[in-house]
Amino acid sequence: MSQWTEEMRTYRVGDVLPAVTKTITQAKINRYAEASGDHNPLHLDPAFAATTPFGGTIAHGMLVLAYVSEMMTAAFGPAWLRGGRFKVRFRGAARPGDRVTASGRIVRDEGGKIFCDVECRNQADELLVSGDGEVGIR
Amino acid sequence: MTLSLAALPKGHEFAETRIKLTSEWVAGYVRSVEDDAIGSVVEFGFPPLALAACSIRALLDQAALPDGAIHVGQELSFSLNRDTESEVVARARVASRGERQGWVLMGIELSVESESGAVMMSGRATITFPVSGGPAG
Asked: What predicted TM-score, i.e. pTM, was given to this entire model?
């Protein structure tokens, strides 16, 4: 993987951020549970999850949110890591087999502080996550 | 025995936890979220949400999630630097708690600081679970 560089990067209101797409699997959910220590059976136990309104296991919200963070890292590099912020709502569940796409768009630039709308949708275009992100680039 | 988060009142403060961000744990986290971008920012050792994950892990070591708990919202801000220390201190408190139509809506403030006291991450998770919720798992 090549190193991120700031040269030639310009940001304009209306720019669409490079989308990140991942396929959710139960194995990935299990790996995230191990890393995070979140063993909620809603994510891990198909029998339990079948008794919930979701009808089956779902991915951790923070796993899906990590795809948004990856998109912001790819778009803004070190600036995102030095001083990023986001505020999101989890609107829908990502399930094993879903293809989840994180996307975003620059909506404001206030003197080098960039504001973005961000979201995640599944392959059926159902909204899973929506919110806004902020990053200082100067 | 671990408490259930469902039993905790507004204002409850979790014991602060010191966490060593080992390279093995970070690698496991990056693998689990398949972060293909973080490797291009070589001066930073891990994605910012890794800090959120480890702070949630510290919290869940002290209080179990109720059955069927759902994460409904998340606010996070972070300030990583090139000299990020590998040992961090995680803190959490129950910032709000309300009940409506049989469900609890709970806000939990999270923060992670470096050993020198610099705030590396702060935020708020909002979760909901049935009023009768017992510990998960």
From this structure: 0.92
